[in-house]
Design brief:
By secondary structure, the chain is an alpha+beta fold. 22% of the residues lie in helices and 35% in strands.
């Protein structure tokens, strides 16, 4: 009897389990196909430390800085070492080291980063590397299985093997209301309940065919850990941005010269506002050529109903120079269809002034309209290297309006004033960010 039972148990173990085998092969095969191309992104940045109390104010030297290490994930998209990750992983980094799945470390160069889409591109000097297969996020359907791959907590886990979590497509086309300090636009996002943990940012979101369909970006949580609300950037957007960053170090975006009115900050009506209201039309821009006027209500963009301002941002985010934006506009109770031919961003075609790794352009009416700036004069920060970010807290999009007692109206004035004051006296920079005026002190140049 015992022998018979043992034989039956052995046969049961050898008998194939179609359901279990299918489940394992779908998730396991997808992870196995992409995991070799997943890397760990280790960054070092320096941050100014502000005194927390009177004792620290007396003990810490002025401008005290501390070394801060950060961690994220990325994935290889070319055999010669091109890597996609999140911009919030690389932002302000003065040193980046990439660790491959086999444990090898490589210093990485930042080819470019785009804070609007939260995408950055790195390059390591290597060849013959595994490449992640690229899929289509537009082929996803709600309920499809997904795999998130990343490196949570990095070296704390003792090796460089990436972690895998699984879930489903919870929703598609999610638009997230921007937070207070958020610079990126998280629109048209993929929502998943696959766990995205600290350190997973920039890692691939993979379909069951083993193809990357998104770049894991962030979670919504009140606990700090995953609660099943993860969001990923569609891979089509990430690849387009990566191609621009690799080719020219910046993203070419279309400009239409139309500024819309912002929703009421404390109003819950932003979700249900019918269309968006035109606030300003830049003279000589595409919007002016199409005879748009302040007060017009834009109801549709490229056939999509605009239910709130995020729909407008979504229409512009993936617009390239030369693309046509088709609008349905309501004016005086009637609707009319107009087409706008997008041009290059005024700030992209403007002459740049470079001071070490600080790139500036003069604020013009077109640039003010493009960026929605609160000030109409000064020097717009296009890019700011780690030294400027660390010393002054400067960020792309800030507008320098004054240095000590010198008012700044043009970008070249920043270069002239800094050159004159450097080594003579400390410099206090005044710059506008949103509706705030911020000041910071600096001696010399970073």
């Amino acid at each position: 009897m015992a022998l018979a039972l043992w034989g039956a148990a052995a046969q049961a173990q050898q008998r194939p389990d179609p359901i279990g085998q299918t489940r394992r092969s779908a998730i396991g095969a997808a992870a196995a196909r992409v995991a070799p191309a997943v890397v760990s992104v280790n960054v070092v940045r320096r941050e100014r430390t502000m005194p927390r109390d009177f004792f620290e104010q007396m003990m810490l030297p002025r401008g005290f800085e501390r070394r801060v290490e950060g961690l994220g994930t990325g994935f290889l998209v070319s055999a010669d070492g091109l890597i996609i990750t999140n911009q919030h992983v690389t932002g302000g980094a003065e040193q980046i080291v990439v660790t491959l799945r086999d444990g090898r470390d490589f210093p990485a160069r930042l080819l470019g980063e785009d804070d609007q889409t939260d995408i950055a591109v790195l390059k390591i000097d290597a060849s013959g590397l595994p490449v992640a297969p690229i899929g289509r996020s537009r082929a996803l359907q709600i309920g499809d299985w997904l795999v998130a791959i990343g490196n949570p907590y990095g070296y704390l886990l003792g090796n460089s093997e990436p972690s895998v979590t699984a879930g489903v497509v919870s929703a598609l086309g999610r638009d997230i209301l921007p937070g207070e300090n958020q610079t990126g636009l998280y629109v048209d996002m993929i929502q998943t309940d696959a766990a995205i943990n600290p350190g997973n940012s920039g890692g691939p979101l993979v379909n069951t065919d083993g193809e990357v369909v998104g770049v894991n970006a962030f979670i919504l949580t009140q606990t700090g850990g995953s609660v099943g609300l993860g969001f990923a950037i569609p891979i089509e957007r990430a690849m387009r941005v990566a191609q621009d960053l690799r080719a020219q170090g910046r993203v070419r975006r279309g400009w239409v010269g139309v500024e819309i009115a912002e929703p009421q900050a404390q109003s819950s009506e932003w979700r249900r506002q019918p269309g968006v209201v035109v606030r300003r039309v830049a003279p000589g821009g595409p919007g002016a050529a199409a005879a748009l006027k302040p007060g017009d209500v834009i109801e549709r963009a490229n056939g999509q109903v605009l239910r709130n301002f995020l729909g407008w941002e979504k229409a512009l985010l993936d617009l390239a120079p030369g693309d046509t934006l088709r609008l349905t506009v309501q004016r005086a109770g009637g609707d009319r269809d107009v087409s706008l031919a997008a041009t290059d961003l005024p700030s992209a075609s403007a002459e740049r002034v470079t001071l070490r790794d600080l790139a500036l352009v003069t604020v013009t009416p077109d640039i003010q309209a493009e960026r929605g700036l609160a000030v109409g004069r000064g020097a717009l920060v296009v890019t700011a290297g780690p030294g400027w970010q660390r010393t002054l807290g400067l960020q792309p999009g800030d507008v320098i309006v004054q240095i000590n007692n010198f008012a700044i109206a043009r970008a070249e004035q920043v270069q002239q004033v800094v050159s004159y004051l450097s080594g003579r006296q400390a410099m206090r920079f005044f710059f506008a960010r949103g509706g705030q005026l911020i000041s910071a002190d600096m001696w010399g140049t970073p």
